[in-house]
Amino acid sequence: MNKTIEIIKSRVSCRSYSDRRVPNSKLEQILEAGKFAPSGVNRQICNILVIKNRKVLERVREALLKSNKRECLYGANLLCLVYGKRDEPLLVQDASCILENMFIAATALKIDSCWINQLDEMLSLPENKKLRARLGINDDERVVGSVIFGYRKEGEEIPSKPRKEDFVRFLK
After folding, report:
1. How many structural domains are present in the chain?
2. Most buried of 5, 18, 38, 107, CB within 10 angstroms?
3. 12 is a domain residue
4. Neighbouring-strand partners of residue 48
């Protein structure tokens, strides 16, 4: 099987991270993969915000915990948000391509990841206005998705889940 397809098929969501940090050299490669994602009419309307600061991560974690009533960062010490102007018609599509490229690149580099999709809703709450400002996300911008990166806790096994049988259909 093709190596790229093997990597895609082996990617799983990790929800239990160790304290080990992702080296900057690997993070740069992941971000570069995101930068080269497809973009409608090559307008490149999205941005990536990288959060490694422990205090800021803790503020985000606490705000997510309060608004979602559950843990959402799973101990990861690296969070990337993909965002852009709310009124851009291709924002969701472009941001999703960026996120997927980063997931695949991370897997290729033996870095675990998990899509975290609650940030825009959480940052839209009035009580999180200061946090939104601290992150530099303007009111006219939307966080389409975010991803945590890191290394799973020692001994943590995450099997790939089976895919449904009727996922693909051919029109005759």
Report:
1. 1
2. 107
3. no
4. 82
